[in-house]
Amino acid sequence: MTDLMAAIVDRPQRDRARAGIAAWMAFMVALLVGRDIDDAGSFVVAGVGGAAIVLRGFAAASGVRSLPRRDIAQRVRLTLLAIAAGAGLGLANVAANWLIAGMHPLIRAALVERFVALRPLDALVAAPIVEEVEVRLFLMSALAWILARVTRRGDVALGLALIGSAMVFAALHLARPLPLDPALANLYRAALIAKYTMAGLGLGWIFWRWGLPYAILCHAAVNAAHLALQNRVF
Fold first, then answer.
1. Domain around 92
2. How would you class 185 by CB atoms within 10 Å of its CB: exposed for 0-12, middle for 13-18, buried for 19 or more?
3. Can you give the pLDDT at residue 51?
4. Residues 154/148, Cβ–Cβ less than 8 Å
5. Which three-class secondary structure state does DSSP give residue 34?
6. Euclidean distance between CA atoms 157 and 159, whole angstroms
7. CA distance 42 to 65
8. pLDDT tens digits, residue range 174-197?
9. Could you tell me the CA-to-CA distances from 191 to 25, 107, 127, 170, 228 in Å, in that order?
10. Which percentage of the chain shows pLDDT scores above 90?
């Protein structure tokens, strides 16, 4: 009986350990696919840094919210919902880029240059995993954990963490070709910040309510939808 109770008590810890190992392995694979690891030294640095990010992210998240245990049917349902949500966000992303491209021919040229330079493996594997681990699992969870202790209100902490992480997510996407004209460059930046902040809010909500795997899957579906349509639209 004691052994049974210990197994039940330890189950959440075992689940978090498995989730942490899976997230770390996925993170390392994504860095390799994205060519961010090119030698033994960078592998060690990435491995240690990734482990710290994953461990602190899960620790912070578990200190603020807990996800229910789900059976296979529930997981399949959430997987399909994540793909559907990603496809919808992908269509919205294409529409947003179409509107942004219509602002000026130089902005359109900068967008198309970005599309041409983006490798499919980066869009479908590297970016979804790395960005969801870094921005949602680590940053959003850490912000929520800190803010929950400052505000003493979980809903306020979650809202602020969601907005803050979405804005950081948007800022990470500004490193791209920009028009040489300063006014056009600023207009383009503002449009990108608005677009990616909205996307970050949706992905952050999915991460917080459903979990990291579904946020990664949704993110990949967003990029897949855009890749499938961008050559037809631009």
1. 2-233
2. middle
3. 96
4. yes
5. coil
6. 6
7. 33
8. 999 999 999 999 999 999 999 999
9. 34, 11, 21, 10, 22
10. 83
- Cα(72)–Cα(216) distance, integer angstroms: 18
Angle between helical axes of 72-101 and 182-210 (0-180°, round to 10): 170
The closest of 150, 148, 124, 125 to 208, measured between CA atoms, is 148
> What's the chain's Rg over C-alpha atoms?
19
Positive or negative, the CA dihedral 150, 155, 158, 159 is negative
Model pTM score = 0.92
CA distance 46 to 142: 20
Helix 72-101 vs helix 212-233: crossing angle, to nearest 10: 40
Output the six-digit token pair for 109: 């040229």
Q: How many domains does the chain have?
A: 1
**Sole residue written with tokens 């994504």:** 30
d(CA 152, CA 104): 47
Say if CB 46 and CB 31 are below 8 A apart: yes
The pair of three-digit structure tokens given for residue 57, joined into one six-digit string = 């992210």
The structure tokens listed for 27 are: 């993170």
